[in-house]
Design a protein that fits this description.
Distance between the termini: 88 Å
Low-confidence stretches: 458-462
Mean pLDDT: 95
Cofactor: Zn(2+)
CATH topology: TIM Barrel
CATH architecture: Alpha-Beta Barrel
Largest sheet: 7 strands, mixed
CATH class: Alpha Beta
Helix content: 25-40%
Bound molecules: dihydropyrimidine-2,4(1H,3H)-dione, zinc ion
Number of domains: 1
Organism: Georhizobium profundi
Shape: globular
Strand order of the largest sheet: 3-2-7-17-18-19-20
Subunit structure: Homotetramer.
Number of helices: 15
GO molecular function: dihydropyrimidinase activity; metal ion binding
CATH superfamily: Metal-dependent hydrolases
Radius of gyration: 23 Å
Keywords: Hydrolase, Metal-binding, Zinc
Structural class: alpha/beta
Amino acid sequence: MSTKVIKNGTVVTADLTYEADVLIENGVITKIGANLSGDEVLDATGCYVMPGGIDPHTHLEMPFMGTYSSDDFETGTRAALSGGTTMVVDFCLPAPGQSLLEALQAWDNKSTKAMCDYSFHMAVTWWGEQVFNEMETVVREKGINTFKHFMAYKGALMVNDDEMYASFQRCAELGALPLVHAENGDVVASLQQKLLAEGNNGPEAHAYSRPPQVEGEAANRAIMIADMAGVPLYIVHVSCEEAHEAIRRARQLGKRVYGEPLVQHLVLDETEYQHPDWDHAARRVMSPPFRSKQHQDSLWAGLAAGSLQVVATDHCAFTTEQKRYGVGDFTKIPNGTGGLEDRLPVLWTKGVATGRLTMNEFVAVTSTNIAKIMNMYPKKGAILVGADADILVLDPKAKKTIAADTQASAIDYNVFEGVEVTGLPRFVLTRGHVAVRDGNFEGRMGHGRFVARKPDQPVNRALSTWKELTAPRKVERTGIPASGV
Ligand code: DUC
Ligand code: ZN
Ligand code: ZN
Ligand code: ZN
């Protein structure tokens, strides 16, 4: 069996930085140390050898808002690998009323094209006995331990509080982790109608219809509901101080609540929606929308302080033609932006190169923390003997200007167009196979495998807050007043 060795690099993990060679056999790291040799040498002189990025939030070939997101498992995972991300966790989205297992079959079929490893979250888009029962199969037989709940998209994907509470309790029983898209869908729907009635139909109105308060309210509500269900909680795409504040406060009280900002929200702001070009603004329509600088500062601070743990993309790419479904009515612009290829270089440039994040924090928020929260550490997210050889060799001196013309994604623009980035992959390995070599793509369609994730990691078994498990006491009364009238 042929071996590979990554030589002369500096290993950077979530907690250590040191010089070492890394030996790979059969897709797994088998030795880390000085002067290792192997059949093939990958020279990492001047580079950092890190766990490949994990993007815990993608929507590939997903039916949504009357169309399908345009990156599929081929172009999406090609984009991922091109930018140093070696695993994605995609959302399996049953239509309301559809069987979870049937939806999962569709996702299994689509994902056979994947070039890197992948896993799924299951969305709970409706509630009933069938969902309750199928959740157990999803966890125990299908290797999925995370369930997503939309608190927005009223009349489509949204679940109400009673459904969310029931599903959270089910997650607690199964040792699974609930995820929420936290926005108050009722308030959003009513703001949308008001804005349209006032003649505000352009893409800027999308942002006005989803102010930070709708996110802050929903984040607080989800945290309290999780607390009552006795389950930890993961809040996706945290974009504002109001939601971050709710997470901070919950964590300070001992609740296991995790927050995931997106690289887009860290770097791009609400002025994008004021652009005179309709296409420019519409291409940036996503939910939650981009915010002001003050919110960006809050998110950066949260990553440094540890109150926010993960940086994702919510990669849900639509072409300009698809965005134009919303000409004359902003509520019909398909929500979503790309970012899979750009997440690591943009976060390195705007985070590590500016001093806002250390290199170790960079690895933690782009890979290791995600692997731990999602129960796949240390198979993923680690440079350790026995870990999968999903490795990014990052050259901190390599530079490029982000441009749609040269990207792997299947869409015709890039929200980071013109941003100059440093810190690019010299090599990217997916389970030991070289997918990027000196900037050239060598990935293979169908190489990716599904990563099953178990429930009941200790952190997921813990109650949201510590409680002594005693049954509530029913009070026996002798004197019962006669009913009135
Ligand atoms: N937000 C988006 O912008 N797109 C996909 C789904 C979501 O919640
Ligand atoms: Zn969402
Ligand atoms: Zn423009
Ligand atoms: Zn999403």
